[in-house]
Amino acid sequence: MKKVDRTYLKFTITVCMLMALYLISQNWKNQLVLRNVRVCDTSLLTYSEVKGLADVQDGTPLYKLSLSDISFRVRQNPFVKEAVVVRALPYDLTITVRERDPLALLATPASMLSVDASGKVLPLPLERKNNLPVITNITNSLSVGDTVKGNLLQAVTFLSDAERLGVALSASIAEVQVDGDNLVAFTTASSLPVVIGKGSFERKLLYFQKFLTEIDGAGDADCDYVDLRFDGQIILGTHSAEVKAGGSRAVVSTSAKVN
Question: How wide is the angle at C-alpha 231 spanned by C-alphas 228 and 237, nearest 5°?
Answer without folding.
Answer: 40
